[in-house]
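User: Hi! I'm working on a homework problem where we have to compare a predicted structure to a textbook description. Could you give me the structure for the chain below?
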Amino acid sequence: MAAKPLFSKVLQIAMVVKDCDAAVRIWADKYGIGPWKIYEFNPDTVQDMIIRGEKVDYAMRLALCDIGGVQWELIQPKDHKSIYAEFLQQHGEGLHHVAFGTENYSDAVRFYEEQGLPVLQGGHWQGLTYTYLDSLKDLNLVAEIYDLKPDFAWPEPQDVYPAE
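Assistant: Happy to help. Predicted structure tokens:
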């Protein structure tokens, strides 16, 4: 057993959806959950995109909202390349990953490498490195972790729904 937990807290729960804007409207208009901050991730906004260790450019539209201190994310793949597109094709819409806090980003990645569990996907966005780890065999989910620059601040979204 590990001396201390690899993950220290739940930061985010994420779903893959076919249409981000339609999903946001359901969450906000029907359930009163919002506002949603909407971003486009693509080769123009994200650097060093990788999928399974290879440089691959991919694109997605995503919406973020806080629900009870946990960030909720809705992701619409904009091409067929990402792990989100794979998930949508294989499973349809649904829960995709959980982002966890970790005391040391590098130690967490190294732990996975030592277990023979690969980095599934990642990139660098606005001072945030996001990394998806293959926890499917052991935990039945994809785990995401972040490596944040100390001065990281969320950039202005491309859109907000409902409008503030």
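For your comparison, note the following. Residues 9-151 form a domain with the 2,3-Dihydroxybiphenyl 1,2-Dioxygenase; domain 1 fold (CATH 3.10.180.10). The two ends are 47 Å apart (CA to CA). Good luck with the assignment!
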